[in-house]
Each structure stands twice: as structure tokens, then as C-alpha cells.
Amino acid sequence: MMKRGLGIWVLLLTFAGMAAAASRLKPKDRIVTLGDSITQAGDYQAIMQKVFDRFYPDLRIEIVNAGIGGHKSTDMSARLQRDVIDRNPTVVTISCGVNDVWHGFYNPPRGVDLATYTQLMTQMVQQLKAKTRAEIYLLTPTVIHENLRGPENLKLEAYCEAVRQIARQEEVHLIDLNALFNLTLRSTQIGGAPEFQPTSDGVHMKPAGNFLMAAAILRALDVPMTQILQATDPLTPQFTANDEHLQYWGRWDRRNAATSGAVAVNTGSTLIIRFEGTDLTLHFGIQHYTHQFPTLWLQVDEGEWHVVNPAEELRVARAPLGAGVHSVRLVVKGFREWENRWDPPLVNSVVFRGLTLEAGGRLLDPPLRPSRLIEYLGDSITEGVLVLNTGPRESWTRDGWPRFSDGRRSWAYQSALLAGAEPRTVGFGRLGLSINANGGVPPALQSFPWIYGGAPVDGPAPDIAVVNLGTNDGSRVSGEVFGSLYRAYLEAIRKAYPGAWILCLRPFNGAHAAVIESAVSGLGDAKIRYVNTAGWIDAEKHTTDKVHLNLEGNQTAAQKLAPILKELLANR
Fold first, then answer.
1. d(CA 380, CA 366)
2. Which in 320, 386, 388, 500 has the greatest CB count within 10 A?
3. Is 391 within a domain?
4. 149-188 tens-digit pLDDT
5. pTM (2 decimals)?
6. Are 568 and 371 in contact (CB under 8 A)?
7. 357 in the same domain as 288
């Protein structure tokens, strides 16, 4: 059944196939997108909806998301009646096959064999033809990792060919996403951009992958390319990142906030907004991410915290807000810290460009910021790395790092809040006094005065500077060398912050503890104190790997440190 044309032709030069006579959008079209987690995420549909809202608002086109994470052809065929047919679609897209193949490489394998996949895909098409009048669009599976000659993609090709055969035999539309992704990836690999990756983990889409999927579907629906491109141009924020109503916590580079945006490279970096209206959209720069997006914590009106990723347009409300005054807090949660976040051009940073309010809304003055400021200088333990990881070490993949880390619930951020102060976290994984950090960050003494390379710290001096360094130096250097470096580090802090208290923590694993205590006493500065953390942390109970604090460990350390901070702030 193909009511709007027969045959398949190459679309957009070579990147997608579709029926020879293109379908056209109709009033009140209901597009049901059947699929797995790639579909469930809703991101490629959001791009489609932007195009419909901008160029076809009178048609009132509805997109129904029928994606469920982890589903294969066996699952989708079982729920076809409930999730697709019963929705009375006028257009159906079926994106199925990645998990059928990918899960076959699990241990134990949980994939779907080619014969069963072909049978079920054919069965779904035939049921849709018999029970609906919908136009049917079969999407070939995209890719499984960017290694196009890898075993997963080699096996996937047979499943893609099965989809092409079914489209021909059943006379339904084909959108050849696999061809699109293969050609796009190969063109970048041989064309000087080998770092391009449309997925975040080999399967799930980043914005580039979602754009390719959306554009292919839209072109198959006869939407002009000019409209697709116009609708996906980055919007200019109504209020730029240098607006005086915005409150920043942490080290942010705001030198170019009015143009390119405010830049943060540390977890715990916070943005606070108050506004009157029904909703607002945050705008981020995202073009610089080659592999993995950072994670962010988002809270509206003191409600539940949600994990989100930077996006060109990130609406803060999951449901419409009532008219009135609202507050938004955004905290940088975790990074894929191996990517460059020191020497520009940065690969891994948060770039906040500004915000746009719903019609009739207005920005308000932010809440009064805490009167005291505490800066934390440390490594991955301060950064909050592995706070949320409870799985076996072999599951600690780099792709999961932004999920495992938590700058908001780290001991540093939380101890400041418990003390009634504003936190300013400066933590880099692997950082030491004698060792570079991940992401190209130089040793602590050289990196201290900078937000990142070439971006000097320009915020106010803290009331207290808390130092937690030494774990990564460990046995790399002698106590004599480490002690010399530690004293020089304290002298640099004192020069930058002449009136601040400086607290030098015994590293939670005790590395160079005696040397640190000796360095503190040797300086003879009454406002530099050694904090003996012995007994605070039980390595078996409070860490993920005998080093990095888990969630309970961070809570414990914060509760131990907070009274010390309160006492010093009271005497400030």
C-alpha cells in the first residue's frame, strides 16, 4: 500500500531514500514514531516539531512518541496495536534494528536473529496496511559505533538490507538512515574531521545524529531543505549571558558573555535565575562537543532536581508553569574530563549563551547571594568524580563519566551550603602539584590563577580557601619535593587571597599527610590551618574504589567539615 507514490529514489544527493512521489503534510496529521531509546529520547521529533511549528502551524501536526528504550522487533511487534494502531495515525515511522543486532554482542547474547527480525518487520507493515490508512515509512537502523567496519556494523548491514527489501515488496516508503550515517561518517573520516561522532556512545544520538534523522524524515515528507535549515539555525537569546539579572556561582569566564556566552569548566558551577512568566528557554553553545555532552542539574521553584544536557534550546519546565514568579537553578554536574578543557578551543566546557522568556515574561533580580564565599581547590575527589557509580570497574567507561560524576552533591559543594556560604569548586581529575590533570590542565600551582588557559580568575576573593591535594601525587614524588611544591602553592594562594582563611585538608586516603601538616606549621601563618581528616572516611563504606567518595562518603565529609567552616566564618 503506497497511496502517495511508488518506488524509491535517492534523497539529498545520497543520504536517504524515499518514495518517488513525495508525501505531503495534511491538516491534523498524526505522526506516530515507533522505535527504541533513540526514538524515546524525543530529540529528532523535537527538531521535526520545530519545523512544523514554524512553517506549518495551521496544519496542527501532532507527533506521538512510541519509543521505548531497549526494545527490539519482538517488543515492538507485541505492542503495535496498543502503541500505534490504536492511536489512529496518518503517518507511521518505524525505527527498529539497532538493539536486535547490538544486544547480540552482549554476554549472554540477547539479540534477535535476522530471520525473526525480517518476519516481524514484515508482519508489522502488513498489520499497519490492513488496520490503518497511514503512510508507512521504514527507517533502516543507523549505526552501532562509528567504526563502520566493526563487527556490529558489518552484521547490521544484513538487517538494513532486509528493511530495504520489505519496503520494496510491501510498497511502502524507505528512509535509508544507515546509508546516510555511513556516508556522512566516511566523508568526515577521509575529509579531515575524523573526530566527528553523531552518537554519544556509539548508538544514542547527539544533536548531529538527531538532525540527520529528522532531516531525512522531513525530506521524505516533502519539507523543503531551506525550511529545515532555517528552523534549525541557532536562535539569538532574548537576554544574553552578561545580563545583570543573572547570578553566577563558581569560576565562569564572562569576558565574551554578551556575544559567545559565559564559559565554565568546573563541576559545581551554578547559574541562578528569577523571572515572572510561564516558562523560559536556556540557550547553550553545543558545537564544540566531539564526543560526550556534560550533564547538568536543573531545578525549578525549589522542586525536584532533574539531570539534563546542554542544548541550543533547553526549556526549563517539564509541564506548563502557572503565571507568577519562578526561580531556576542550574548546576554543572559532570564532564567527560579527558577532552580538552584548558587550552582554547575547548572541547569540554559549558557555554551558556543566554535565555528567552515566553511572551509577556520578564527577568527579575536574583535572590540575595550568600554573604560568604568558600573556594575549593582539588582534584577528582573535589570535582565529584564517581560519586554515583556503583557498578563493577569494567563498567566505568568514559562515556558514562558525566553520569557518574556529581558536582552538586560533592563534599565541597555541600559543605559550603551547610555552612551557609556560596561554593566555588575548582576541581580537575588527576590534578596534583607534580602532575597534570586530565583535559590538558597543568599542575595545581600553574593552573590556580586561571579559569582555563588564558582566562584569568576575576571573581571576588573567598573568605575561606579549602585545599585538598596530594592524592594524585602519592608515591610519584618524594615527601621533600611534594613539601616544597605544597609550600609554594600555599604562598600563591596567600598572595591571591591575602585575607582569607586557608584550610589544608589531610587527603582522605592520607597521602603525604605528615608533609602537609609540616608545611602548614612551617609557614607560621595563623590563618593557614591543617585539618586532620583521619577517621572521616571508611574506604570500604564511603568510596567507590578506595579513593573516590561515593554519595554517602561525600555527605559524611561535608558534615564533618561544615562545623569547622561555620566556626571560621563566624570569626571572620
1. 31
2. 386
3. yes
4. 999 999 999 999 999 999 999 999 999 999 999 999 999 9
5. 0.79
6. no
7. yes
